[in-house]
C-alpha cells in the first residue's frame, strides 16, 4: 500500500497540472479580445439594403434600424459629395461610426430609404503641432488612436472617457466625458478649438454647406455636441 502512495500522489499532481494548464489556456482564450463587428451591415452590392445596430447588437426598443444605403467617404471632399448628392435626392441621413457605442438609436436615419454616412474610413491624424500642443484629426479617429498618436509625439490628453473604442465624432456628438478636475475638466468637447462640419444646403449652395468653425465662433458649441443632427463633422482641431 505504502509503495503505491508515491504513484497515487504523482498521478494526482499530474491531473492537477493538466487541469491547471487547461484552466490557464481557457483563461487566455477568454481574455483574448477582438474589435466588435462593424455595426453597419448591407445585404446588397454597392452598400444598399442596410441595417445598423449598436455595439451591444440591440437597441433598447429591440427594433432593427433599416437604411436604404451606406456611404464610406474616405476624405472630406468625398463626404461633401455624398451629402450634396443625398440632399439633392431628398434623403434622410445620419452619421454612423465604426463602433456605435451609444445605446439609444441615435445613428438611425429613420425611414427605409435613409443614408448611413459612416466615418469608418475618415480616420487619419492630419497634423500634430507639438509646440502649440494641438492635433487635427478626422472625426473617425478613435480615442485609442488619439491617445497613442499624442503619446508618440510626446503629448498626453488630460481628459477622456474610460472607454477607448470611441470615435472623436461620436465623443463630441454625445458630450462624452471622464472624471478629471484637471485643466478645463473632463468633457472632450471643451478642448476642441475648431472643427469642420458638412451639412445639407440649398440649391444655391450646390445642396451642401461646409462650415469651418473656430474658437470664438458662436456656432462652435452647437456643432460640437449635436447628436449628429446638424451635419457630419469631418475634421476636428483639438487642444
Ligand atoms: C461600455 C461603455 C462605456 C462608456 N463609458 C463612457 C464614459 O466613461 N463617459 C462617457 O461620457 N460616455 C461613456 N459611454 C458613452 C459613450 O461615450 C458614447 O456612447 C460615445 O461617445 C459614442 O461614441 P461612438 O464613436 O461609438 O459614436 P456613436 O455611438 O456611433 O454615435 C454617437 C452620436 O454621434 C453622432 N456622430 C458620430 N460621428 C459623428 C460625426 N463625425 N459628425 C457628427 N455626428 C457624429 C452619431 O450620429 C450619434 O448621434 C460609454 C459607452 C459604453 C458602451
Automatic annotation (TrEMBL):
Similarity comment text for this entry: Belongs to the oxygen-dependent FAD-linked oxidoreductase family.
Position of the signal peptide: 1-33
Pathway where this protein functions: Cofactor biosynthesis; L-ascorbate biosynthesis
GO terms under biological process: L-ascorbic acid biosynthetic process
Cofactor: FAD
Sorted UniProt keywords: Ascorbate biosynthesis, FAD, Flavoprotein, Oxidoreductase, Signal
Protein's organism: Morus notabilis
Protein name per the record: L-gulonolactone oxidase
Any one GO molecular-function label of the UniProt entry: L-gulonolactone oxidase activity
Protein's UniProt keywords contain Ligase: no
Residue stretches making up the FAD-binding PCMH-type domain: 56-239
EC number: 1.1.3.8
Catalytic activity: L-gulono-1,4-lactone + O2 = L-ascorbate + H2O2 + H(+)
